[in-house]
Design brief:
Layout: E1 7-14, E2 25-32, E3 41-52, E4 57-68, E5 74-82, H1 89-96, H2 109-122, H3 132-147, E6 159-160, E7 166-167
Parallel strand pairs: 5-6
Antiparallel strand pairs: 1-2, 1-5, 2-3, 3-4, 6-7
InterPro entries: DUF6914
Length: 175
C-alpha cells in the first residue's frame, strides 16, 4: 500500500469575481488517491460562505465533501505531499475542524488555508513548509502561468510541487 498513498493537494477552483468577492479562485485542500480517474471521488476540505437566511448575512463554514476528481472549475493544483499511511481522510478532517473559521469582512478561504497549513505540518501530514503565504503565492503564480487565464478540458489539470515546479498531473483530462 505504500506505493498508493493518499495525496494532499492545494486546489484552485475558478470562480467569477465580484466587487464583494474579488478573488479569481476559490482555494481548498483535496485528499485524493494516486491517479484518480475523472469519475472517481475525492474529498474536498475547505471553508465556504453562504447566505444565512435568518440573518441575511454571509457566514463562513468548514465543509468536508466528496466530489468527482475532475470538475469544470478545477483549474490548478499544488501537491503538498503524500499522506502518511497512518492517516485517513477522517484524521485530516478532524485536524482541520480545529482551525478557526472567522466571520470577518476581509477574511477569505485562502486565509483559512494559510492558518490550516501549520496544523497539517505539526501533525506530520505534510512536510515542513516555508511561509504559508509564500506557498499560496507560489501556487497562484503557477496556476496563472500554466493556464494563462483559461482551462483546457482535454489536458490534465496543471499541477506543481511545493516550490512551484510543474509535475506530472495525476488528475487527467476529461474523456
Amino acid at each position: 500500500m505504500t506505493g498508493n498513498k493518499l495525496r494532499l493537494y492545494l486546489a484552485y477552483y475558478r470562480r467569477n469575481p465580484t466587487p464583494n468577492q474579488p478573488a479569481r479562485y476559490h482555494t481548498s485542500f483535496i485528499v485524493a488517491p494516486k491517479n484518480p480517474q475523472v469519475t472517481d471521488y475525492i474529498t474536498v476540505l475547505h471553508v465556504t460562505n453562504r447566505l444565512d437566511r435568518r440573518t441575511l448575512t454571509q457566514l463562513w463554514k468548514f465543509e468536508s465533501k466528496t466530489s468527482q476528481a475532475r470538475t469544470n472549475q478545477l483549474t490548478g493544483l499544488m501537491l503538498l505531499g503524500k499522506v502518511p499511511p497512518n492517516f485517513t481522510v477522517e484524521n485530516i478532517t478532524q485536524i482541520l475542524t480545529t482551525i478557526p473559521v472567522k466571520q470577518e469582512e476581509d477574511w477569505w478561504c485562502h486565509d483559512w488555508i494559510m492558518e490550516a497549513m501549520p496544523a497539517l505540518v505539526e501533525n506530520g501530514i505534510i512536510p515542513k513548509l516555508s511561509d504559508p503565504q509564500e506557498v499560496l503565492n507560489t501556487a497562484y503564480e503557477f496556476v496563472e502561468t500554466a493556464t494563462q487565464g483559461s482551462l483546457s478540458k482535454d489536458q490534465p489539470v496543471p499541477t506543481c510541487n511545493i516550490v512551484g515546479r510543474r509535475v506530472a498531473s495525476e488528475f487527467g483530462a476529461f474523456e
